[in-house]
Amino acid sequence: MDIGKYSKLTLLIAACCVSVNADHKADAPWSWHIVSAGLDESRISVHRRDQLFGIFNLSCDLTDLKEGPRIENNASLNLVQTDSHPEGLLLITCNVGAHSQQVAIIDLNSKSNEPVFTETGSYFADWELQDGELWIRYDQPCPEGVSVDCPDGFETIYVQYPEPLPDQ
Question: What is the predicted pLDDT for the residue at 16?
Fold first, then answer.
């Protein structure tokens, strides 16, 4: 007996059953539901109108979203439209471990059940829209460690998503 096949089938059935009870509206272009949330792994189901688009496994903690509004909102899900992705991107920010934060992007035009982008910062990871484009910001240890150029031992990295094509 292949337990892996049955566990995936059970997860899919559970997600569909949970989604029926969730506040999904058939006329809404996109909706999502947290299937499970834990310290090191969370699952969300994403729906396009009344159809299941996919179930996504994330290696971070979405507990704050599952438990409702809190003083420390350490997790968020946002539908973001950019010039390069007018259909939208689902941006997820969440905690990883005791101190780190992660940004994950689900491309709503992709057929993949994996996020198209994931980056974890040592202490923070966030995003913002600038002139219709998406920028991810996160921190990481300086390659040389603490130095005159890097007095606190960490540097802030800015990445545009999607990465712009080189000029030809």
Answer: 37
Q: Where are the domains of the chain?
A: 3-161
Q: How far is residue 125's CA from residue 51's CA, in Å, rounded to a whole number?
A: 31
**What CA–CA distance (Å, rounded) separates 88 from 81?**
4
d(CA 86, CA 106): 14
Whether the per-residue pLDDT at 4 is higher than 60: the answer is: no
* Strand spans (E) along 20-153: 30-37, 42-48, 51-58, 76-80, 89-96, 100-107, 117-121, 125-130, 133-141
Count of helices and strands (H, E) across the chain: 2, 10
Structure-token pair, residue 96? 């990883």
Q: How many beta carbons lie within 10 A of that of residue 128, not counting itself?
A: 11
